[in-house]
Amino acid sequence: MEKFEILSEALDYIEENLGRGVTPEECAAKCCYSLSNMQKMFRCVFHIGISDYISRRRITMAARELIETDSTVLDIAVKYGYNSHEVFTRAFTRLWGVTPASFRKSSGFSEIFPKLGRNDRLFDGKGNEIMSSKIRFDVSHLYDFIKERRGKYAVCFDMCHLMYINDTFGSAAGDAAIAECLRRIDKAAGEDMLLVRVGGDEFVLITDLSDRSDAEKAAQKVLESNGGTVKCGDKEFEVSMRAGFVVIPESGNIRYNELFDSFIIASRPGE
């Protein structure tokens, strides 16, 4: 358990210091652990390098502030350790596929890379679960939103072939594919709906719809884009999703695995 305590301490330290440009070296020193061992352990457990994790968390928090505050793009860039508007814009566009200004105008979702924490599921390098408790939704008002929609439909989306995209085109392409999925869902969502990312390639659109056919129409609006391509650098690849439905229970809690146990729409239209 010592290694997992070190990882938890590292994650907490990263989160507390995102606004000042925390580095992997600082993080390792804080945990009294060598940088090489920290990097190896981080990649083995979370399947991502510590530098990449820090970078993506910085962009995620910056994206949230673009939506939730009136701060200028430059002020947000400086707050999260970027020394110029141009550097921040390039980093932001690589992840989201749009500039910060465009994101602020069109998007309603900012959790493309949720923080990891003590309550998240951890896996070893072979994909075996080694620490587990409930998934934490990193949206402060999610509980009240769901409570108000008991008896309504949640539309669940699962991206197809993320592992293949990561393995074939690289992790940056995987990030671009995830961002594309979020854009498609966010574009189709109504103002009374809330989009939440609940896993690496899994998303839930919480609706105010009580009729199954209406929920299916909402899903179909998203899935009409299946097979459309995304570009990442000089690479271009298809992105598709599946969708399923679950009614938010009138009482009690909905289990995470219940969200994705009955997909009814194939990865491509017509399949």
3D architecture notes:
The model is unreliable at 117-141 and 262-271 (pLDDT under 50). By secondary structure, the chain is an alpha+beta fold. The relative contact order is 0.11. The protein starts with a helix and ends in a 6-residue tail after the last strand. It has 11 helices and 9 strands. It has a 5-stranded antiparallel beta sheet. A two-stranded antiparallel sheet has the order 1-2. Helix 9 crosses helix 10 (171-188) and helix 10 (171-188) packs across helix 11 (212-223). Strand 4 (194-197) and strand 5 (202-206) form a beta hairpin.
Beta-strand content: 5-15%
Query: What class would the helix/strand composition place it in?
Result: alpha+beta
Order of helices and strands: HHHHHHHEEHEHHEEHEEEE
Overall body shape: globular
Helix content: 40-55%
Number of E strands:
9
Low-confidence stretches: 117-141, 262-271
The largest pleated sheet is described as: 5 strands, antiparallel
Write a concise keyword list for the protein shown above.
271 residues, alpha+beta, 5-stranded antiparallel beta sheet, two-stranded antiparallel ribbon, 11 helices, 9 strands, globular, disordered C terminus
